[in-house]
Design goal:
Blueprint: E1 2-3, E2 6-11, E3 17-28, H1 32-42, H2 47-66, H3 71-76, H4 78-94, E4 98-110, H5 114-302, H6 304-323, H7 339-361, H8 369-374, H9 377-382
Antiparallel strand pairs: 1-3, 2-3, 3-4
Helix pairs in contact: 2-4, 5-6
Pfam families: Band_7 (PF01145), Flot (PF15975)
GO molecular function: protease binding
Domain Band: 38-220
């Protein structure tokens, strides 16, 4: 009997649901004991019923084995998978007097394109392996080609070497023959050239000596120039820089000392001025005091006469102060129709003068004999 067990959407060990269809060839065993088992199991049943029992048994084992394998194991090694199903299911169907002649996997597929993804991966891997194989083949071919070229070059080198050896031997023989012919010529030429070389060497030695002397002179000149340059640099750069630095330092020190001395001098000046002013004030004060003391003594000694002398001494100053505005006057015009009117005015002014002085100083000018004469009508008229 040919059976086609089928398990749909069975989860593998990785949880991927796949559908597997197989083809099994089975028959009833002919051994008496096993035939008795078959008769016991299937007598009275139709062929369809017998197929159904065996098919369900195979599908059950197939489902159980699918749950222990991965998709890769099932897909990549179908023979091993079919052999495993056959080995697991054979004892059970054997107890029913049935023998599994063959079991193969017909189809494996899924609804989530898992197997197609594996196919793409496998295809990429195969393509990669193919590319690697091509590269390795090209590499091997290149290596072999290089080896062949090397062998060819080795053979060519050997041949070229032999040709060169033959040519070298020929040239050596020619050279040997030519050497014998040209020896005498060479000896004569060599003698000439040797003598010429000796003369040339002497000339060259003299030239070298001249060059050495010139070079020594040039070196001395350069040394002098270097010394001159150094001195020039020292004179034009270093010394002015040092002088400028020293100058700036001295100027700074001078400014510092100047400021200090100026401040000291200013302080001394202020002190001296203060002392001088104090001494001057003291001297003036003493002089004024002595003057006042002497005046007081004179006043005390002479009494009214001293006072009168002071008044007389002050009168010119008073008159000068009073007459100061009149000094700027060119002329005074008194408008009066009578000549005696002018005289009267002057007399009145002179008559009022002693009264004014007495009011200011307390000195009565009318009691002084000289002034008494000046205040008489005759003196006024004469004035």
């Amino acid at each position: 009997m040919t059976l086609q067990p089928k398990c749909e959407d069975v989860e593998t060990a990785e949880g991927v649901a796949i559908t597997v269809t197989g083809v099994a060839q089975v028959k009833v065993m002919t051994e008496k004991e096993l035939l008795g088992y078959a008769c016991e199991q299937f007598l009275g049943k139709s062929v369809m019923e017998i197929k159904s029992v065996i098919l369900q048994t195979l599908e059950g084992h197939l489902r159980a084995i699918l749950g222990t394998l991965t998709v890769e194991q099932i897909y990549q090694d179908r023979d091993k998978f079919a052999s495993l199903v056959r080995e697991v299911a054979a004892p059970d169907v054997g107890r029913m007097g049935i023998e599994i002649l063959s079991f193969t996997i017909k189809d494996v597929y899924d609804k989530v394109d898992y197997l197609s993804s594996l196919g793409k991966t496998q295809t990429a891997a195969v393509q990669r392996d193919a590319d690697i194989g091509v590269a390795e083949a090209e590499r091997d071919a290149g290596i072999r080609e290089a080896e062949c070229k090397k062998e060819m070059m080795d053979v060519k080198f050997v041949a070229d070497t032999k040709m060169a050896d033959s040519k070298r031997e020929l040239e050596m023989q020619k050279a040997s023959f030519n050497q014998e012919v040209n020896t005498k010529k060479a000896e004569a030429q060599l003698a000439y050239e040797l003598q010429a070389a000796k003369e040339q060497q002497k000339i060259r030695l003299e030239e070298i000596e001249i060059e050495v002397v010139q070079r020594k002179k040039q070196i001395k000149i350069e040394e002098k120039e270097i010394e001159r340059t150094e001195k020039e640099l020292i004179a034009t750069v270093k010394r002015p820089a040092e002088a400028e630095a020293y100058k700036m330092q001295q100027l700074a020190e001078g400014q510092k000392i100047k400021k200090v001395l100026t401040a000291q001098a200013e302080a001394e000046k202020i002190r001296c001025i203060g002392e001088a002013e104090a001494a001057s004030i003291e001297a003036v004060g003493k002089a004024e005091a002595e003057k006042m003391r002497l005046k007081a003594e004179a006043y005390q000694q002479y009494g009214d006469a001293a006072k009168t002398a002071l008044v007389l001494e002050a009168l010119p100053k008073i008159a000068g102060k009073v007459a100061a505005p009149l000094s700027k006057t060119n002329e005074i015009v008194i408008l009066s129709g009578e000549g005696s009117r002018v005289t009267g005015e002057v007399n009145r002014l002179l008559a009022e003068l002693p009264v004014s002085v007495n009011a200011l100083t307390g000195v009565d000018l009318t009691k002084i004999p000289l002034l008494q004469k000046m205040t008489t009508p005759q003196s006024q008229a004469a004035f």
